[in-house]
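Moderator note: this is an archived Q&A kept for reference. The question asked for a predicted structure of one protein chain; the sequence and the answer are reproduced below.
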Amino acid sequence: MPVTITAPRITRATWSSERAFVLATAAAAVGLGNVWRFPYIAGENGGAAFIIAYIIAVLAVGIPLMIIEISAGRVERGSPVKTFRSLYSYGGLFGWLVVGLTMLIMSYYLVITGWTMAYAVDSVTGNIRSFSEFTAGFSSIFYFLAVSLITAIIVARGVSLIETLSKIMMPLFLLTILFLTGYSLTLPGTKEAMTFLFSPDFSSFLSPTLWVLAFGQAFYSLAIGQGYLITYGSFLPEHTNLPRATGWIAGIETVVALIAGLMIFPLVFTFGLQPDQGADLAFSTLPLAFANIPFGGILAVAFFWLFFLAALSSSIAGMQVVKTALREELRLTHAWATVAAFLPILPLGILAALSFTPAEFTVFDRPFLEVLDMFAANQVVIVLGLVGGAIIAWTIPRQTVINGFSNRFRPYAAHVINTTKYLWVFVALILLLSFII
């Protein structure tokens, strides 16, 4: 007697509210995108000039692209693969490129999340190691594997658990950062840090590299071109005001990035560190703060555990993108889709973790993790973000985007669509020229 196998029925949850969507989406990047990555990229690229270029990138291109991507996800109610396929005949292939980029980013993102977990554990024991001590062994690999397992378990549970974590973690994490920033601003290095962060060298604006890195950080922080916005937008409830929601997300991201700079750079200049130290900048400076601040041990426990949860939220968001695509395209269960999402990531993640161990795995004389970050976040993400925005803007029905605007903001909807259609061409040409240079 023949046996009929029925594929699992795909059902989609939704965020409980617009506020839940804003918190979850902001949490997807705040943990590492702004507290870890923004200061180290700003430190390597002149501070103030980079910050101005970053803000220009967010306002001119970032927010319109966010609205376009979320609109597409909201209408198609699917993964990036499904969304781009429905908009363009060969769009499915592009959607898989987006998912592949997210997998590449997650391979080293989970390694850094592992660092935050290690420091959280150390804070409880009262023995916070310096970063050089941490990388003297192979702890980086162990914590990468531990975090990967935790992330897989949460991703398999779905949207509701992600929403709950975001609502609890985000406000507490922001309060802790604000308190630490207040302490940092009392240190002797504050004046030098303020000059570094807010007194630009205007000749730097002629550097193509500065603009490429600023746009790369803006796209990275706002999760553009990585499938996050399409995937999270597919869970969006009706009657969400997209301009208001994206404005809040972009505002939170930018403010937290600036606060992170004010928290870290006074420590850098007070303790004689170099602002262009690289990917370990935050992990080298923050232990110094806790060693010198009153009640530093207690505060270290609160900060590093919240930092870990914020980083974990970012990792969950990225893996949710990959899992959703695999589940919907291959008709897998939650569990099998989660397993399929993690298997390709583990080998690259182990190599990235090895770059901060005694093995010191390097490429082009830089740690492999930093090479992955520069390639994925400063080059590929810009290309995919601009091309993806163009595909959506030229193919999505205009009324679809307009419906996401409240009556008050609907006159501006056409401007968002046109900006995404035409401005990206100008930006793409400039960035292409910068890549060549």
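Archived answer notes: The longest helix spans residues 91-125.
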